[in-house]
């Protein structure tokens, strides 16, 4: 492991430290600050020549600052003669802009993929992409992890019967089916029609949820409108209890206020792919760590071992 180096940007240093704790390596030193006019300044404070370097930096809010930091760090490492640079992006920002769904709009996820490659990244390690096809936007290898194992461990501790896994929309069926299979639960889908990028109009439920313990699964929660509408729909359908398991807790805008007011939602489980700031903490929100999952993936990539076996 003497050829392995892990660095962190300012986005989520706590996650990087926990990954290093799992790997039993020291977090490499780097200076990341700002010049007086706001430009990002990066300096790698140790020798990385010939090393296998992993840069941990989710592109979470503020996405532009964190993305730019990541690009500059990759460029610094490339010019410092690192042997291989892997961008570890637990939360991949701009993933929702993955296609042209309207005239004259960009495909920003593809642009970000190009920027990372141009900066000098040799590989990307990410988790629960909003759209799986984003892997194809890269001309470099992408290891796509899933947080399902972390959530399944949580739900498996108190053995529950009469579970139903609920997909909040048609696009999340694949994820919900994977949870249902692992938990030996039934499956339900909320068919909804989106009326704007921030608002969705719920139509009806496909599947049986009455008197069942419902688990809503999704890849991210931003403003929380989709989640709250799903909870309200399940309440009307007489679900016994409702818990949400969502990988990336962006929690922007009125999300916390909505979660607090939603009496039907018992608990919101998120991962630490995005740091949960003190002002965003709430009694209903519980954070599960993905540091060990990312650490194991980093170890296997470094040792040229299979990463796909982590999905078993």
What does this structure look like?
- The chain has 312 residues and is of the alpha/beta class.
- It folds into 2 domains: 4-145 and 292-311, 3-Layer(aba) Sandwich (Rossmann fold), CATH 3.40.50.2020; 148-288, Rossmann fold.
- It has helices spanning 13-23, 63-79, 108-119, 148-156, 173-183, 225-236, 255-261, 291-302, and strands at residues 4-8, 30-34, 40-44, 52-56, 84-89, 123-127, 142-145, 163-167, 186-196, 199-206, 213-221, 241-249, 267-271, 285-288.
- The strands form 3 sheets. It has a 7-stranded mixed β-sheet with strand order 10-9-8-11-12-13-14, sandwiched between helices. It has a 5-stranded parallel β-sheet with strand order 1-4-5-6-7, sandwiched between helices.
- Helix 7 (255-261) links the parallel strand 12 and strand 13.
- Helix 4 (148-156) runs parallel beside helix 5.
- The longest helix has 17 residues, at 63-79.
- It is globular, with a radius of gyration of 20 Å.
SSE diagram, text form:
Layout: E1 4-8, H1 13-23, E2 30-34, E3 40-44, E4 52-56, H2 63-79, E5 84-89, H3 108-119, E6 123-127, E7 142-145, H4 148-156, E8 163-167, H5 173-183, E9 186-196, E10 199-206, E11 213-221, H6 225-236, E12 241-249, H7 255-261, E13 267-271, E14 285-288, H8 291-302
Parallel strand pairs: 1-4, 4-5, 5-6, 6-7, 8-9, 8-11, 11-12, 12-13, 13-14
Antiparallel strand pairs: 2-3, 9-10
Helix pairs in contact: 1-8, 4-5
Named CATH architecture of the largest domain: 3-Layer(aba) Sandwich
Q: Characterize the largest beta sheet: strand count, sense, and whether it forms a barrel.
A: 7 strands, mixed
Would you give the CATH topology of the largest domain? Answer: Rossmann fold
CATH class of the largest domain: Alpha Beta
- Strand fraction equals 25-35%
Q: What value does the average pLDDT take?
A: 94
Structural class: alpha/beta
CA(first)-CA(last) distance:
25 Å
Number of helices: 8
Give the overall shape. globular
Give me the oligomer status: single chain
Q: Provide the number of structural domains.
A: 2
- Helices and strands, in order, run as EHEEEHEHEEHEHEEEHEHEEH
Beta-strand segment tally: 14
- Specify Rg, calculated over alpha carbons: 20 Å
Unreliable stretches covering 5 or more consecutive residues: none
């Amino acid at each position: 492991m003497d050829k392995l180096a892990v660095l962190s940007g300012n986005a989520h240093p706590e996650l990087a430290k926990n990954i290093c704790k799992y790997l039993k390596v020291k977090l490499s030193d780097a200076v990341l600050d700002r010049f007086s006019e706001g430009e990002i300044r990066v300096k790698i404070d140790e020798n990385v020549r010939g090393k296998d370097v992993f840069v941990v930096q989710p592109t979470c809010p503020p996405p532009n600052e964190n993305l730019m930091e990541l690009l500059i760090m990759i460029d610094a490492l490339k010019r410092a003669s690192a042997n291989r640079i892997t961008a570890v992006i637990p939360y991949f920002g701009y993933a929702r802009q993955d296609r042209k769904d309207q005239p004259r709009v960009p495909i920003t996820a593809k642009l970000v993929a190009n920027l990372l490659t141009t900066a000098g990244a040799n590989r990307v390690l990410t988790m629960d992409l909003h759209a799986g096809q984003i892997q194809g936007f890269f001309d470099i290898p992408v290891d796509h992890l899933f947080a399902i194992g972390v959530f399944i461990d949580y739900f498996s501790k108190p053995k529950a019967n009469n579970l139903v896994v609920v997909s909040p929309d048609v696009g999340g069926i694949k994820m919900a089916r994977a949870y249902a299979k692992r938990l030996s639960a039934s499956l339900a889908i909320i068919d909804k029609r989106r009326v704007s990028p921030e608002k969705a109009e719920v139509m009806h439920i496909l599947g049986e949820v009455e008197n069942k313990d419902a688990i809503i699964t999704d890849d991210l929660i931003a403003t929380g409108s989709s989640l709250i509408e799903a909870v309200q729909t399940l309440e009307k359908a007489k679900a016994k209890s409702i818990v949400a398991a969502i990988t990336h807790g962006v929690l922007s805008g009125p999300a916390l206020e909505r979660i607090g007011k939603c009496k039907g939602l018992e608990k919101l489980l998120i991962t630490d792919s995005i740091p949960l700031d003190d002002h965003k903490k709430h009694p209903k929100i519980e954070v599960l760590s993905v540091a060990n999952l990312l650490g194991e993936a980093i170890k296997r990539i470094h040792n040229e071992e299979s990463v796909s076996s982590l999905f078993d």
